[in-house]
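=== RUN LOG ===
request id: a7f3
mode: sequence -> structure
chains: 1
length: 231
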Amino acid sequence: MADPSHHPAAAALAASHIELTEGLESKVLVLNRAYAAMRVVSARRAFCLLSRSIAEVIHVGYDDEGAANQFVSYDLESWIEVSSLQREFERERHDWVRTVRFEVAVPRIIRLLGYDRLPDQTVKLNRRNLFARDRNQCQYCGRHFTTSDLSIDHVMPRTQGGGDTWENLVCACIKCNARKGGRTPEQASMKLVRRPVRPHRNPVIALRLGNSRYQSWKAFLDHAYWNVELG
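=== RESULT ===
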């Protein structure tokens, strides 16, 4: 693979001479060398890996019926060149990062060239995944809120032996959480919108797949690889 530092555009990107930064927070699926889904990272992290020749871009092609039928790999230098065509013919299908001299499309998938380890098959229990599982919906009043207006509630309160588990944690708005207090839903005369369960697939990735820009992820996210770690 060519050293990206030999390409002026790639060198500028590697040096972080970036003007348009919104695209750097786009999400990129990371595969290991055997094409197994490993994790999801920001575009900023993906470009860092590409600029160090640790990874390559994987671009998915589709047939007339919309089925994935071609996987093409690019190093950073080649991807920057391909981006010029994407900018002209399919700009709306990509997120973009602009340096002082050029624009480059954010890749949707990259592959680590020297990493064979298999992904962890468990979904991490954290606030981000809980909000995604419940889709930012208060599980008592049923309304949707921004993350800053939501809290995490123990269905069975800690004072009554409730633990930090998928089956005992739900999103709750501040008002409902205060109303429930240190009681069970039954004690507070409140009902859950749905019973909390451990998700079989990473809920944040499931939300991303609803966006057509992330369609290419589906080619690598079969049932064996749904539970990838979020970076």
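=== NOTES ===
Residues 4-121+203-230 form one domain.
The two ends are 26 Å apart (CA to CA).
=== END ===
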